[in-house]
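[Automated response] Your request has been received and processed.

Submitted sequence:
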Amino acid sequence: MKRELVDYAEVMRCVSTLERTDLAQISVLGRSILGREIPVITLGRGKNAVLYVGGHRGTESVCCGLLLDFLTDYVKEYEKKNRVFEYPMSYLYEQRRVIVIPMLNPDGAEYVCHSVGDDNPLRDRVLRMNGGDDFSAWQANARGVDLSHNYDAGFFEYRQSGMRTDGVISLGGEFPESEPETAALCRMLRFRREEIVGVLSLGTGSGDIYCCCADNLTAKTISVARVLSRFTGYRLFRPEELRPIGSLTDWCISSLGRPAFTVQCGTAEGCDRRLTYERLRRVLFSFSCIV
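Generated structure:
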């Protein structure tokens, strides 16, 4: 199956289209190391919000595409005044709110899609780290930090374990939130802690729902995770199988006390975007009502 890549330009084209509607509110989370704006799209007017985050890793651009598909689908269904599953779109828009960050790591995605240009100030460094100019397996941000392990939840245990990824060394950074991308996201979550009641982080993997952080899970979190597993058909890890690994999901549960889940929606190489979106569609439309 041909690998489906989503670059930063595709994200910004979608954002530009959404900006021309009356439904989406567009803001900027912050800037990446190489200065790219990280867009935030908000749909709905409800008091409480849920947050969807995609593209922690450069190889996970298909997850960015899935969130772009959701944003486009949401607007289309609302304009048609449709009901999606059991929810009228008018209810979802007026009573619920969804905040979407489709691509947290635009620099890493650009490396995977377009390699590293001669004008990149970090070119020599990342070429040495990568072992050549084929960046198709690049997981990290512009300077080689794996953002998916740059959060203050099991961070130092993760570093000591010496974990690696395929293609490049998996380094979580010098300290939690050392990277501008994750630092900006954590600032937003702390500032908006009371209004954001649940978080979904989309990644690639073997088709699993991950929701564990030490022993801080509540019965509600487990209950929601089981619903997500039933909606998608993805396997739910048992809490005793898991430990904190410095992820956004771990950090939201341990530091913010908020239900948070990582949805691993297929491998980067073998994920059919259309079919995967259909599998995730009910979760993306329903999460704000079940969390």
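Summary generated for your ticket: The chain has ten helices and ten strands. Strands lie at 24-31, 37-44, 49-53, 83-84, 87-88, 97-101, 196-203, 208-210, 235-236, 260-264.
If you did not submit this request, please reply to this message.
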